[in-house]
Write a structure and sequence with these properties.
The chain has 371 residues and is of the alpha/beta class. It is 38% helix and 18% strand. The strands form four sheets. Strands 3-4-5-6-9-10 form a six-stranded mixed beta sheet, with helices on both faces. It has a five-stranded parallel beta sheet with strand order 2-1-11-13-15, with helices on both faces. It has a two-stranded antiparallel ribbon with strand order 7-8. The radius of gyration is 21 Å and the shape is globular.
Length: 371
Amino acid sequence: MRIVIAPDKYKGTASARAVAEAMGRGAARARPGAEVALFPMADGGEGTLEALLSALGGRIAGHRVTGPLGAPARGLTARLPDDRVVLEMASSSGLALVAGHERDPLRASSYGTGELILAALRTRPAQVLVGLGGSASTDGGSGAARAVGWRFLDARGNDLPPGGGALRSLQRIDPAGVVEEMKGARIQGLTDVGCLLLGPRGAAAAFGPQKGASEADIEVLEEGLANLASRIRADLGEDVAGAVGAGAAGGMGAGLIAFFGASLEGGFETVAEAANLRSALGTADLVITGEGHLDHQSLGGKVPIGVARLARDAHVECLAVCGRVSVPAPELATHGIKRALGLEDELGSERAHAHAADSIAEVTARLLARQ
């Protein structure tokens, strides 16, 4: 029997590699003698750089950048063997860089991500891959664009202050100072969600609350992003409001399209291709996936659903072990996941968090024992 293990990270608890290894131990316990193959995955959010390095190899470099509220941060890039450079927004403009009591969704900026992109471009890469996810900002990528020379001006011709809260006052976008390194740049955004920029499932409404945004803040951010989209259309001739993935990472997807000439692609698809996951599933008897919280946002393009889709194409049964599961079993089945168990349901929240790796192994073994 051949079992493929292809999970995402459990955010804030265990990396995708650690999760895969724990699942592998559980699978070996329940199915002695089975061949177990580990494929740590990611979807464009945190862990994408690590997953691509795991699949392809490469070398990491650190860069001093500006964090989401102005404090210094250390952003990471990785150069892959094919001369592409990958970076994660989370390492330069991520929510994890801001303490909970300091979160300021109206002022948080993506400027550091622009600095990281510029650092990558200066190494003359074949392409820059930007992992979108885990951001603190909801500024439509305007902060990142400033870092490479774009200006965002109010009615008096003054530069707007950083953050999505100021975008309601945007009157003109000025490209005159864009740096030379941007000429001919090939940039691709890797999205972990397929959401639009605006609306009830857009950048502000769907993801603002997890960044500390109140209902009043969300209204301000929504108006600002709508104004930004309008100015992009008027000044640059680009319609980002209807682009799938434009709402990823606080609208950074839209910013990459408009200010960096980027294309957007699902992060899971990029990582899965690099890892040759489709080929691995072709010789598998079973696949196990998972993530920290399998919820309805997961259905929009997160790792478990992506793995289940590939498994269905390969006619391979797909199971999931997650920290929590809040999607009903019949609904998961329609997406290709035959059964999913949550650590908290099986072992209780305290044990699941205190002993994550052992808990993952134990619940994986339980899941296979019930097959």
